[in-house]
Amino acid sequence: MMTTTTTLGGSVGSSGGGGGVSSRMVAESPYSCTMTTRPQRADPPVVQTRPMFNPPPFSLALKPKMEGGLGALGESFDPGLIGRGSREDGYESRSGSENVEGASGDDQDPTAGTKSSKRKKYHRHTPYQIQELESAFKENPHPDEKARLELSRRLNLENKQVKFWFQNRRTQMKTQLERHENAILKQENDKLRIENIAMKEAISSPMCNQCGGQAILGEVHVEEHHLRLENTRLRDELNRICVLANKFLGKPISPFSGSMGNTDLELAVGRSNFDAWNVPNNDYDNRSMVMDLGFTAMNELLKLAEIGEPLWHRSVDGNGEALNIEEYDRTFRCCIGMRPPNFITEATRTTGTVLLNSMAIVETLMDANRWAEMFTGIVGRASVIDVISSNPSGSRDGSLQLMHAELQILSPLAPLHNVKFLRFCKHHAEGVWAIVDVSVDGSQPHEFQSCRMLPSGCIVQDLQNGYSKVLWIQHMEYDESMVHNFLKPLIRSGVGLGAQRWLATLQRQCECLAVIMSPSIPSAESSVISPGGRRSIVQLAQRMTRSFCAVVCANMYRWDPIQTGNGNDPAAVRLSMRKSQGEPGEPPGVVLSATKTIWLPITRLRLFDFLRSEETRNQWDVLSNGALQQMIHISKGQTDPANRISIYRNTASASVNQNSMLMLQESCTDVSGSIITYASVGAQEMTLVMNGGDSSCVALLPSGFSIVSDCFNNTGWLDDSKGAPSIEGNDSNGSLLTVGFQMLVSSSPGAKLTLESVETVNALISRMVLDIKAAFLCN
Known about the structure:
This protein has 779 residues and is α+β, with helices and mostly antiparallel strands. It folds into four domains: 185 residues, no CATH class; 48 residues; 232 residues, Alpha-D-Glucose-1,6-Bisphosphate, Chain A, domain 4, CATH 3.30.530; 255 residues, Alpha-D-Glucose-1,6-Bisphosphate, Chain A, domain 4. It is 33% helix and 22% strand. It has 18 helices and 23 strands. Strands 5, 6, 7, 8, 9, 10, 11, 12, 13 and 14 form a ten-stranded antiparallel beta sheet that branches. The radius of gyration is 42 Å and the shape is elongated.
């Protein structure tokens, strides 16, 4: 008869008559399970281990330096962590090195089994047998039948004794490994519990790193918190008024006693040292809420990128996709609040390849100055107000910053859109980045907002040969009451600030950057210009284009408007005046600008080719004195040869002397629109630039044109041949042309503007518009 005792790691087989030895072993085992035994013929025991969980895999091929059964792994054990003490260890030792006389029921007489049968003696293996078994276990913990027979013959043991010894030894080893692992996990759990308690205490009472005071208000009611915010705002306003009163009245007028800069609220909310156009940002220092908004916007951007129809449908021009607003409202919850009244939505999506790797695009978008330079014509000015979160390693992954920007449409009829927004950058996979923008103006009820940016941005994925695949999503809301009726179709169609315009500008600028930075010079260009000279000319042309955009949109400079007639009339010329003090890159004196937007029944590309060509320039340039001859041209890309920079001279001049004037012109075009800018430059200054000199000191007063395709379906406005017939045979073949013109009316900054100067500039731009119309017979 055989009694089987089941332990945590396996089973121990023994033979006996009445179960006395069995009872003793069960009583000494802390993990034994009471089982009912009955007389039966015992088959060779099969040891099965069923651990409570699957631990990390350990190799049973132990190293040769094992001593005492544990080897190198046992050297790291802490005896105090193993668990149950000497009783368990004693049992494990017996299970491996002790045996019962007559180990298997097969060796007993079948007739035996009465209570008077002789009890088998409990004995240990000899030290020599234990040593040999341990050595064999080190070499192979799972011996086969042949190896066990060899050991049994050599050690004078039965085959089943050798088999049981190896089974019990493996069980012992596994039990010790599990105990050691449990002890380590318990230590890690205790460390995490202590760290969790410390973090909770730190969150409950955060301290300001700058002043050492409490960083949040603590448990305060929401209404009380808002009242304290309003109270601090009023105190600051009172303080500013008192300072002004002291200055103008000459009497010291004190505000409330106490320093306004050390109020409890300032310690609780915090202040930023960066003053971006005097925009207060102390309400945005609740960084946890700001970071939640950034993560929510990122999740929405990724979902908008993945979902197709019915959320997105093809746009009318077929070059992109437009958002189904009703489906969007059903699918998403607006993360910046409800849409204000009179606001309209512009949401578009498009995809394309860009000649720049993903990391370079990310660095450009996260740098405010490089972002504004890259998207000239869309971004007027940009700045970083505060860096909410950054990566200690210097990577842009996880970077979250609060930014301010002026978004513009190149027309005097379009208002500037000031947006304050979060920009969050995330590295999702190898070569895949996502950047999302979302407005935070909604949390400032006392601030007027004409534009809101819902989760918008791009997902950039690296391709081969330095290219990237870019998916751009632009989702914005505008106050329609601020938009002129003539431009409302342009805004609603997405042509104004849609995803197609952003991506097309990025593609064109990256292609230009690649061509300019290339050491080789195209064969079609003049080889007399060195690579350094090409870069200097490009920098000068880019500054000229940025200055023209600032003239059209009346930003960057302080312009004083000049009222002439009805300001709401789209056919009227907008006149503005500023005084230049001779800053680098500008001539000193009084500058007068004139801008006007008109509709023409001419396709955009045809109008663009007409205005950029030197052969047709004398048909509209009222200040030209004879025909122009191209001296040098620099290509800015291979996709469209019209993207170029040209330098012209007047054919009336026999040669370029030190006193003659040259004409610098840059033309840019893509699927979203076209820009032509030009300015007069002295021959001496241009020679310096062509030789690689500094172009920032060259004074410019640029003029030019901005052209976009209309969205009117063959309709114009009152004084521009409303409903003119289709010349090109298309449903929409018209263009919106914006003309921008500057003139230095006096070289003295202190001079007064005369009525004669205003009338002269007004007459010049009106004559230019009439000549352009006459060239296409659309008067």
